[in-house]
From TrEMBL:
It comes from the Bacteria. This is Amino acid ABC transporter ATP-binding protein. The keyword Amino-acid biosynthesis does not apply. The keyword Transferase does not apply. InterPro entries: AAA+_ATPase, ABC_AA/LPS_Transport, ABC_transporter-like_ATP-bd, BCA_ABC_TP_C, P-loop_NTPase. Pfam families: ABC_tran (PF00005), BCA_ABC_TP_C (PF12399). Residues 7-248 form the ABC transporter domain. GO terms for molecular function: ATP binding; ATP hydrolysis activity. Keywords: ATP-binding, Cell membrane, Membrane, Nucleotide-binding, Transport. One of its GO terms (cellular component) is plasma membrane.
Length: 257
């Protein structure tokens, strides 16, 4: 069967003053998948994300989104095409309410929205759409809470909601469960699974329980290069992958099963 790739990179490379952080990376992200990018610290995962969102310019190589070469596309256009990276908590306004933060997410891509918000009915429509998103991430009961007062895990859920507000076709999540306790990790894992319906997710994640339970495909990076790409069962038994993880803080690749 022909693969339906939403995102593909060819020989993607980034060097910093001669240090090669991302080295000839070929990524193949299938539409509808939860695709995980894993690897030891310093493997080049975040740099890859920065290249995909055009925060950084590649040294060489190409990036294709829905078959279109977007290597030279500007960051703002990337977002408009539907590649959205989740915003870190620092980008959520702590003094605003949960609902207001989601509304700003809408404004980021629908720059004209506020121009036709002259009537109460269009404002209500927008608020209703925001509430639908809050319900999707289980935050509806917090809609009028000040964001700063939310527990950490709920703030991360809000971060996902503000990303969803930008209507991503491809959503990039960099360590969505980082710093969370067990309960929040479990809730966030299920949340990612839920919001992946009808979307594609590319995520960097260190927690192997998360990876093994929801990732359809995994790319393993080490020292900037792809070591393996495949299902959890495939990559976790790959000798090169096991070798790369030896002696790191991640330990062995042990999943939930
Ligand atoms: N702007 C930069 N200038 C110089 N070197 C950089 C820069 N950004 C990243 N690097 C280097 O590139 C390598 C890859 O870094 P990157 O942050 O992409 O790794 P990572 O896989 O995200 O690691 P972690 O798991 O710790 O988040 C590291 O050695 C890092 O020091
Ligand atoms: Mg990183």
């Amino acid at each position: 069967m022909e693969k339906d790739l939403i995102l593909e990179t060819k020989q993607l490379t980034k060097s910093f003053l001669g240090f090669i952080a991302v080295n000839n990376v070929d990524l193949h992200v299938q539409r509808g998948n939860i695709h995980a990018l894993i690897g030891p610290n310093g493997a080049g995962k975040t740099t890859c994300f920065n290249l995909l969102t055009k925060f950084l310019k590649p040294t060489s190589g190409k990036i294709y989104f829905n078959g279109e070469n977007i290597t030279q596309t500007k960051p703002a256009q990337i977002a408009r095409k539907g590649i959205i990276r989740s915003f870190q908590i620092s980008a959520v306004f702590p003094e605003l309410t949960v609902l207001e933060n989601v509304r700003i997410g809408f404004q980021r891509t629908h720059t004209n929205t506020y121009n036709f918000l002259r009537s109460d009915s269009s404002l209500n429509r927008l608020n209703n759409r925001c509430r639908e998103l809050l319900a999707e991430v289980d935050l509806l009961e917090f809609e009028n809470h000040i964001t700063a007062d939310l527990p950490y895990g709920r703030k991360r859920a809000l971060e996902i909601a503000t990303t969803l507000a930008m209507e991503p076709e491809l959503m990039l999540l960099d360590e969505p469960t980082q710093g969370m306790g067990l309960e929040d990790v479990e809730r966030t894992t299920q949340l990612i699974k839920k919001v992946s319906t009808g979307r594609t997710i590319l995520m960097v994640e260190h927690n192997m329980n998360v990876i093994s339970s929801i990732a359809d495909c995994i790319t393993v990076l080490a020292r900037g290069a792809v070591l393996a790409e495949g299902t959890y069962a495939e990559v976790s038994t790959n000798p090169a992958v096991m070798e790369a993880y030896m002696g790191t803080s991640e330990g062995v690749l042990e999943g939930a099963h």
